[in-house]
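User: My advisor asked me to double-check a structure prediction for N5-carboxyaminoimidazole ribonucleotide synthase before group meeting. I don't want to rely on an old file, so could you generate it fresh from this sequence?
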Amino acid sequence: MKLGILGGGQLARMLSLSAHPLGIHTICLDPSSEACASEVTQVITAPLTDEKALDQLLENADYVTIETENIPLSCVEYVTKSKTFYPSVKALAVSQDRLLEKQFLKSLSIPTAAFYDVSSKERLQQAYSELGHAILKTRRLGYDGKGQCVLKSQVDLERGWQTLRDQELIVEQLIPFEFEVSLIGVRNKEKKISFYPLVRNHHKEGILRWSEVPVDKPHLQKEAEGIVTAILTALDYVGVLSVEFFYDGKQLLVNEMAPRVHNSGHWTLEGACTSQFENHLRAIFGLPIGSTEAIGHSFMLNCIGEMPSINQCLNIPGAHYHQYGKESRPNRKLGHVTLVDTNTERFRKSKQQLMALGALS
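Assistant: Sure, here is a fresh prediction for N5-carboxyaminoimidazole ribonucleotide synthase from the sequence you gave:
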């Protein structure tokens, strides 16, 4: 069994590590000579649109998947001429364009923030007048808080337009949410769907800082599962899908979806019976989907810019240390630490210790 992965970052790295016990050989294509997946699998270094490099990948793959949605559609269309691509071309096209994504959600009557396509400053002004506080975003290639400006005043609007006006834009109503959650689902070729427990997430400056399971709100789990089921079915999806939500005190509103394994699912490596990475592989290769049940309480700390001390982390009961082999840079995801414990009180104490190491609150 052989899998080609478009992208060679930490998600490709963790997919490859999860593939080894299943007897799956992975090969990645990434334009960076520093792709961190190269420590654990073969990485072809070339532009994603390089047809010779793509041919090399395809010669060594039964199926092809992605570790990022920021992949040129032309690349995936080339892949599908000779190999099956998962999750699907439509899923990728929808998720990499904020406007298409919002229109897709609206077509399914799925709650999301009010939005407007922005093609001119006049259109932006009109949208801002109707929406009130809003957020201006690039339609493509925005992630971890990049390519967006919060609009709470006319000054913000002028600044946002000057900063982003050369790109295709969308403006969305700013949601005053109580908290953020995400749901990770997996759908196989037989159309069977399984869900992990709902995850509570905390972002700072647009970057995920920590995730925690369980949320212990069964009505929200049910609500989220209904929404994600509709998305998976409409896209005829195969593999793992993550959907991020805002909870405004009344209902869940979809923020965005990611057609791949996701940062908020890293806790599953130790905290679930089967990780998101393994289940993505199982779905692609037609293997039985593994149990998505949580083992106990889980907490995941994202390590941004620098890694905490490995000795201090591993002195905390239930801690597991993951570094990605990347050079330290400001706001760069360098690794993560997970906590897993079935003892509630011990988990709370360990969580406080880990949050202190990460300077989180």
